[in-house]
Amino acid sequence: MSRNALLDFKRKIDQMASAQEMQELYESCCKELAARFLRKVMKRTPVGKGSFEVERDNAGGVKTYQKGKRKGQVKLKRITNGGTLRRGWTAKTYQEAKGGTSLDVTSAAESLRVARKGRFYEITITNVVPYASFVELGHRQEPGRFVPVLGKRLKNGWVEGQFMMKISAEELAREAPDILRKRFKAWLEAKLNT
User: What is the per-residue burial (b if ≥16 Cβ within 10 Å, else e) of 150-187?
Assistant: First the structure.
């Protein structure tokens, strides 16, 4: 390798290692990991059926199905969609999650703020739904109490958590080194080939 080629290589290394470019690389890596985490945790988040009310005719009577598999059954009208907890991962407010807007993991991850703490970079991901921690970690309940929304009495004193966040974080922690290695290799090759 000639002296000029070595000097050119040194110049490229010096240029690609600017603080601004490295900061952008680190932040984009954090956001990619956040997007991957959101995809994993949302996939594991349970979705409820939503809420319904009985349909009534003009006279106030209950409407029923007249034919088909459900003949004779009461007609229900959907009031809210299920999935509020799942939408809570990407929503800004509880009302937005409850409203049923579409989920876009990539833009949600891009909107997150990356904080630098010493040598480390961190992104905080939260679920805006107030009961999210109870679904994640589990909760107590009073056996025998009647719950009108469910239409039945509670049987167990403890409901096990789903651990959707914990499992997703552990899985991503195992995959992150390979993801970052590939990302850095592609970045380095792009910089060296320009």
Answer: eeeeeeeeeeeebebbeebeeebeeeeeeeeeeeeeeb
